[in-house]
Each structure stands twice: as C-alpha cells, then as structure tokens.
Amino acid sequence: MLTLLSYGAVVENLRLKLTEYGWTFKPLWFPDPSHPALLLRIEWAALMPIAAADPLARFIESRHTNRRFFKGPKLSSEALSALEAAVAATPNATLEWFDQPERRHALLKLIRMAETERFKSRVLHEELFESIAFDAGWKNATTELLAPATLEVEAFMRGPFSALRHWRLMRAANRLGAHRGLGLRVGDVPARTSPHLGALTSTLPPAEAALAIGAGFQRLWLAAEQSGLALQPMVASAILATQIDASEGVSDRTREALKSGWRALVGEALPLVVFRIGRARKPRVVSGRRPVEDYLI
C-alpha cells in the first residue's frame, strides 16, 4: 500500500512539473489486464490552449516532513478550503477532517494504538528501525533511509532510542510498558497538540484507492508547503488496518480494533493516509534525495 501511495504521488509530481513546459498527460493505471505487472501507461499531450503552470509545481523540491510539535492558532476557513480544493482536483480521493472533539478523540485512540503496536511487534519494530540510518549520526542528512536528525528526538532520549533498535532490549523494555510510552510520544502527543488532524479516504478498490490517495495527498502537502504550513503524515493507524494477518506484524486483535474504529469514523470508505497539520519552525535537517542520474538507464 505504501508503495502504491508513493507511485500516486510521483505521477502527480510528474504531471505538475510538466505543466511548466506546456505539457500534460492522462495516466492510465493497470492498462493491460494480460500484463498485471504493467502499472502505468502515459498518454502525452500539449496543453491546449497553453495554460499557466500549476503553482504547486514550484513546491515539490521544498516539501518535507516536519516532525516538530505544531502550534496554533487553527487555520482559517479560507486556508482549510484551499487545502480541500487541492485534494478535490484528484478524482476519487476525499479529505476528512477530525477537528470535532468526538471524532478527534476517536482518531487519537487509533493513532495511539497503531504506534504502540509498532514497538510491541517484532516484525513492525524491525521494519521501523531498519528504515533509520543510525550511522549518519544525529546531525547529518542522508540520501536514502531516514536520517535520525529528521526524527526530532529530544537530546536526552537519543541514546536510549538508538539502543532500542535491538529487539532483545526492546522486548525487555516492553515488560515495563516502553511500547505504550513510545506510542504516546511518537503518535498521541504530536497529534493531540496539533491544530488539525485529517485523513484521505477513497471508495475505490484498495490498489486504485492507494494511487488516487497518493496523488491527492501529494497535492495537499504541496498546498500546505505553499501556505507555509508544517505537515507530518501518520499512516500507521490506516495502513496496519489493511494487513491480512498476524504474519505481517500487527496482531489480529489490534487489526480488528483499527478496522472497526475506522468503520465507525468513515463508514465503508478506505482510509490510507492520516496527517497532522499546523505551524512550526522548519526542521533542522531534512531527508535528502538521490541525484536524478541514479534513476536514468
């Protein structure tokens, strides 16, 4: 699901960037049923009549995750409408806000549950810590994996957090409730203190939903960057609910609780991205990107 979400975002970036050159395209997803591995076919076309470049294209390079604590005040109705309009340009992706107390409380419970599971489950724990390039130290950026400096871990917690990448230590710490404390710090507290929480959903089948939501979320994120807002995706509560069985890391009990919780919030729609948004200083370090030449054949 995460891969398909990223494909949707990449293709939306390509479409946006091409408007700067007077071109557009229609993405044809899964164009040949006889070749299921063929994900995308693109039909190029000149913009007719020639139109101005999409303003969101200018913010692709500067868009980064911000894991600092966010502050208010709440966004104006005009600012919220601008974010909604950015998503609305993507068919089959719907933006849901969770600012009403009851809905916000319910979503916070799901976020806390999912983040706790990521430290409680060995499979999810290894998946999480293998994505962090601890060799880079706490001051440097990386071009692959997550730089520890981007995680905004408090200085006094960096040593213990690094040590917890070893499952035997994490398992021992969990006997004292470490997974619950980490679930609060990583998920609940940042979300709870943010002015707004939202999610993107779709009623399409799962694969198509992921592609549509990936594109819609990229537009939302770029619109937030355009407005000088900080944003952090928090996808665990949605993605873990899509796992098939316990072999993928999440326990049956937690998966079913996440599913039923989301069903109560959004009905039969499929949520795949949760995010928090507000105002914050720019991150000290941002994830780097590999040079374009690495991708050319």
Structure overview:
With 297 residues, this protein is α+β, with helices and mostly antiparallel strands. Helix content is 42%, strand content 13%. The model has no long low-confidence stretch (mean pLDDT 94). The longest helix is centred in the last third of the chain and has 21 residues.
Summary, kept brief:
With 297 residues, this protein is of the alpha+beta class. The protein contains ten helices and six strands; from the N terminus they run αββαβαααααβαβααβ.
What does the secondary structure layout of this molecule look like, with pairings?
Blueprint: H1 2-18, E1 23-29, E2 40-46, H2 77-88, E3 94-97, H3 101-120, H4 122-129, H5 158-163, H6 167-174, H7 178-192, E4 196-202, H8 206-226, E5 230-233, H9 236-239, H10 252-266, E6 270-278
Antiparallel strand pairs: 1-2, 3-4, 4-6, 5-6
